[in-house]
Structures are given as C-alpha cells and as structure tokens.
Amino acid sequence: MQILITGAAGMIGRKLVAALVARGELRGDPITGLTLVDRDAPVLPDGIPGAALAADLSDPAAAPALAEARPDVIFHLAAVVSGEAEADTAKGYAVNLHGTVALCEAIAAQPDYCPRLVFTSSIAVFGAPLPDVIPDDQPPRPLTSYGTQKRMGELMIDDLSRKGALDGVSLRLPTICIRPGAPNAAASGFYSSILREPLIGQPAVLPVPDTVRHWFASPRAAVGFLLRAAEMETGALGQDRSLNLPGVGASVAEEIAALERVAGAKAAGLIRREPDAAVQAIIDTWPRGFDPARARALGFEAEPDMDTIIRAHVEDELGGRIPVAEQG
Amino acid sequence: MQILITGAAGMIGRKLVAALVARGELRGDPITGLTLVDRDAPVLPDGIPGAALAADLSDPAAAPALAEARPDVIFHLAAVVSGEAEADTAKGYAVNLHGTVALCEAIAAQPDYCPRLVFTSSIAVFGAPLPDVIPDDQPPRPLTSYGTQKRMGELMIDDLSRKGALDGVSLRLPTICIRPGAPNAAASGFYSSILREPLIGQPAVLPVPDTVRHWFASPRAAVGFLLRAAEMETGALGQDRSLNLPGVGASVAEEIAALERVAGAKAAGLIRREPDAAVQAIIDTWPRGFDPARARALGFEAEPDMDTIIRAHVEDELGGRIPVAEQG
C-alpha cells in the first residue's frame, strides 16, 4: 500500500500522517510507502519508508512526477483557505483549481491506473439561500472563490470517476473545530478561537451574534472521515462522488455553554463581543446545518455534541489539562 | 467598440462575424476592431479593421496576449464538441476547461478592466434524471465530460463576475438545428442530418426512436442569443450568470412531420432507421425540454416551431431553394 498525501504539512495532514503511522495499514494492506508533499517539505515520520517533498502543485511539472509513482491511495488536502482565496483571487485559483486539475489530469494520463483519490472539499460549495437543515440533494451553489474552486474540483472528480480514470471521493468537510495552533486566514477562524484561547486562559474575540449557527467536526473526526473515504466501497456513491458529512450543529451560544460546562464560567467570560460586519456578511452565506443521511449510511461518524469536541481538543492538544480551570 | 471572438472559424463564429459586420455596431457603439481567433487563422471580413489570429487557447501564453488588448466584448466560443470531449478526455479538458480558465484568468489579471464575456455553455450541463420540462432552477448535474467542462466554466465566470473581474453571461445553448455543412463529432449530429440531407435529396440515418424529444434552436437564433447577451443589462442576473435559453421542443417524429410539411413526403422518405445503442445511451441522459422563463423575460427569443427552423435553413443555406422538392 503506497500512499500520497498533498498538503501533508497542514494541520489535518499532520494528524492524518500520524494516524496512518499508528495504524500501519490501510484497507487491510500494510503501508509500504508514504509520500508527503507540501510547499515546504513536511517531516517524514520514523518507521515507514517514504519521501517528503517540497512541491507546488500549481507548477505543471509537479503532479505528473507524483502520479508516475502510481500510489494506491491519494489524499489531496493541499489548498489555500477560504479567506486567502477570497482576498487573492489568482493564488486561490492557482492552488485550489489548477493544483486539483493538474493532479486529476496526471492520474488520468497514466494508463491502467485508477487510484482512490480522497479530495477535501468543503461545505463552502453551498451558498445562501439555504434551508436550516441541508438535505443530501441540496444543489451546490458556491458564493465564494473557495467554494467555487472546490465545486469545480468535485465536478472533475465525478467525471473522471465515471470514466474509470480515477476512483474519487470528495468530502465536504464541516468547519474544523477546535482548530489547534495559530489562527489561519479562514473567515471561520473565530469558531475555534472562542474555545481554544479561553481554554488556556487567553481572551478571544467573537465577531458575530450568539445566535449564529454552524456545522462543526473535530480534527479527530476529520481524520476519521479521510480514512473512511480511503477504505469505503465507492460503488454505492453512483455518479455523485461528493458527500455532505456528519458534524455537530451548534449556535455560538451553544458553543459557549459547552465551554462553560467543560472549563467553567471563567473561560466563557474571556470571550469579548466585537461585531464585525465584514465577517458577518461572509458568515450569512454559509450553511447552518445538515442532514447527512448518505454519509452516515456509508459509515462516516462525527462527535455527538460540542462538549465532546472540546474534550477531544483537551485530550489531543492540551495533554488532558484545562489551564484556565487551574488558574486561581 | 473592440470585440474578440474565440472559435471564430467555427460554424456559429462565422455567422456571428457576418452579423456583426452587417450591423457595424454593438451596444450602440460603432465596431472599431474585431479580433478573430481560432486554431487556424479565421478569414477576416472586409470593411472592419481587425486581426485574424491562429492560437491554441490551451497554450498558457495565448490568453494573456488576447486580454492585454482589452477588448470591450469577448465572445468565447472556442470548444471541442461533446463527442470528441467524451472520446478524448485530455483534449476536452485542455480546450474546454483550460482554454476557458486561461481566458478568465487573463482577463482578471488586467487591472481596471471588466469586459463583457459571453460564454457558450450548453444544455449538456444537465444530466438525467430530468423532468420533461426543466425549470430555471434545475440544478446542473452533468453526466458527460463536455457538460462537466462547461459547468466548471460557468462556475468560474459566476465567481469572477461577483468579484467584478469580468461581466459574464453563460448561454446554455440548445442543440443547434439545422447545423449546416459537414457532420461534426457531436453525438447530437443526427438531429440536424435527418433534416439537412433529405432537403438536398440525400439519405440520412436516424439512430434513435421517433419518440425521442429534444430542445433546438437555429444557427440564426444562436447568433441572436449571442448579440442579446452582449447587449443586455447584467444586473438582472444576480449571482447566477447562466441562462437556459428559449428553443423549440420537438420529438424526432415532429421534426420529420415538419420536414414533410416544408419539403414533401419524398424528403421524409429519405430517412433510414438504424437504431444505435451507443447513441441512444448518450441521448437518454439529455434534456427533453425547458421552461426558460428567465431568459425570455430578458429578451432572448427563438423560433416558434420546427417548420420555421427548417425554413430558416432553406433561406440561409440553400438560397431559398429546396432541392429535394425540385427533383422528379
């Protein structure tokens, strides 16, 4: 089992690599090689033979070199996030569209080769007006450059899967929460920071009203989705290889209530309300919740509630400790 | 008024050029320059200053050179047809996806420049299952490479129009009928040939049952759509720049009945039924009819019936004569 991961140095990429190394197998086959790719060469873990490469997928020479090695499973995570794709149109299309198209074309150009391609799409393929609970047959209608680029990738993966050139699964990931580490350029960043910073006793800014609802999954659940997509039977997907995924639907108020249950009132008190019309305008176009019946039937599972999402962060990122609760 | 036309040597391209030359103006402004582009340099008509260029839009250098001249209106017609895009996956993506993406990116890269971009999309963005009459809010779900590539172009044009980088209109052209000249690689070719060949006394092959329904517009109507798209106010389109267009919904039996009314029983007798399962399988996924209320309200008009479509062909291509009716 040879595996290729693009965007392997990103937050999800690093957790996926760790999970694969811990398992040692995929689809019942021992992992014999792991090729990790990112703009800057990722760190190759001990114990599994492989390569860590620095490559820019928007460079036309990059994808063919990767596809020629004919990995059995490809996790295509490399992307520019939503805020950056909106602000820098050319860069967003270069990475999110051309990178995906080049990878698909390089795979299709290899004769007698049909790898599993797991593509991280996004719930940003949906734009307003949207029902409170989005059904599986909701037509995608992106209203951001990021959502547009992800939807274009989904369409190409559907077409090339239909033609047998690859065996694709596009995962419309919920907003990842709690996203560890430093904030990135995603407009959704505050959904994580209003939990992440208070847990360690730091203040956080909330730019939207408490009533705003959204759809979340933990980094741990995201890795589980990627592994499930690599191992599932794709015959059940038919012509539509894109899946809306399970998650936790919660309002900002419900996020804060869960924070208070897990970490106490002091944590919740560290959130400062500073309404931001620009963030609000973006958030207004986003999904509020899903009924992902198709993915659930196919074995995709997320956390049951926001409390569990917060506890997963405490376990995975804070060594089981809650610093704010330990403060005087 | 500077105009750029890609695919200018194609059937619709040549008729569009002739119509622009005959009008001499667009949007009330005199046409001062016409740049015609195709794989092989098109013929530049007399009387209007301009250039005829041979260029391959899938070559990354081609589009920037065209956009630097900053034409006011761009008609982007260049495409590989449906049958060829299905058979030659790499070529279809090279021309239909990369050509369109490169043109959009080249426009977006020009500062303070927002031309009207008229893009010939297709009803092939819709795939089965479909209602008999497709409403304007039917979600696109392509089931061919051609339809996939056209839908990807529509999405990018929606996004860049939203951002003010261009001012796009995507026209989901009905199947053009009667398509003059030699058959091309489009799977829809028989819809034209069962009328075109009998009109001149030649036999034609019908590969599907008489009951099959489809959606048609004449080349004359197609040119009218392109001119209307160049001249309309786009504010009314909102975020969705793609238009389902008026046409004539007809079954093969209704096509043949119209042929008999216009050209006599002898013409209809020249159609030979040779069922072809491969053509049937493609046709089964295609739209049968539309209710294009949005485009009608915006001033897009097609023929009232199939008889008028056939008479338009007799006038435009046969000099008003019907050879089969003149034969003994």
TrEMBL record, chains A, B:
CDD domains assigned: Gne_like_SDR_e
Keywords (A to Z) from UniProt: Carbohydrate metabolism, NADP
Protein name: SDR family oxidoreductase
Source species, domain of life: Bacteria
InterPro entries xrefs: DenD, Epimerase_deHydtase, NAD(P)-bd_dom_sf
UniProt domain NAD-dependent epimerase/dehydratase: residue ranges: 3-198
Classification via SUPFAM superfamilies: NAD(P)-binding Rossmann-fold domains (SSF51735)
